[in-house]
Write a structure and sequence with these properties.
By secondary structure, this protein is of the alpha/beta class. About 30% of the residues lie in helices and about 25% in strands. Strands 1, 2, 3, 4, 5, 6 and 7 form a 7-stranded mixed beta sheet that branches. β5 and β6 form a beta hairpin. The protein is elongated. The chain starts with a strand and ends in a 6-residue tail after the last helix.
Length: about 190
């Protein structure tokens, strides 16, 4: 009997790096899922729905692969019940960073794993406090291009780490894939690294 094949339904290079860090062999399935919060939807419900939709889209793309396990994930930054997605442009990145400056925000990461009809999830909720940022710092950071493609307009694994005065929770969850929770989820499905 063949061992189940793990697939990561994600376009994120950071998620690929993090999953590889755990030692699992996997293939990437490129998925395109709309990321739009519904009226009245809580931030956690939104992130959960998008992560599950990514896993389902990956499973659908692998139709016929009965032994496939598909992992989907989503991570969002939340401040004052507002979900900060990826900045649309430089002005959006600057506005996000100005709002995060000197404040504590929440980062929600949800992971879904699908195997046939079986579906389970795990979540990580972290709190990140930014130092008060000078306008020159914000402008210089945005000019590096690092904020683009990152929820909340910053990369904790990059230069954006200099803004983080305190982190309570999962560093990898803030990056985009909570490793502790993901590893436990994979073990529940019988997967081992290697």
């Amino acid at each position: 009997m063949n061992a189940p094949r793990l697939h990561l339904a994600s376009r994120s290079p950071r998620r690929r790096e993090l999953l590889a860090q755990l030692g699992y062999r996997f293939e990437v399935v490129d998925v395109d899922v709309p990321e739009c919060r519904l009226p009245g939807e809580s931030p956690l419900s939104y992130v959960d729905r998008v992560a599950q939709a990514k896993a389902r889209a990956g499973r659908d793309a692998l139709a016929g692969a009965a032994d496939a396990l598909v992992l989907g994930a989503d991570t969002e930054v939340v401040l004052d019940d507002e979900v900060f997605g990826k900045p649309r442009d430089a002005a959006d990145a600057l506005a996000m960073l100005r709002r995060l400056s000197g404040r504590t925000h929440t980062v929600i990461s949800v992971v879904w794993l699908l195997a046939g009809e079986r579906a389970e999830s795990a979540q990580s909720v972290s709190r990140v406090r930014f130092a008060a940022l000078e306008e020159a710092e914000i402008t210089a950071y945005a000019a590096t291009g690092e904020p683009f493609g990152k929820a909340g307009g910053y990369a904790i694994q990059g230069r954006g780490a200099a803004f983080v005065a305190h982190l309570q929770g999962s560093h990898s969850g803030v990056v985009g894939l909570p490793l502790f929770e993901t590893a436990r989820l994979l073990r529940r499905f019988g997967l081992v690294p290697g």
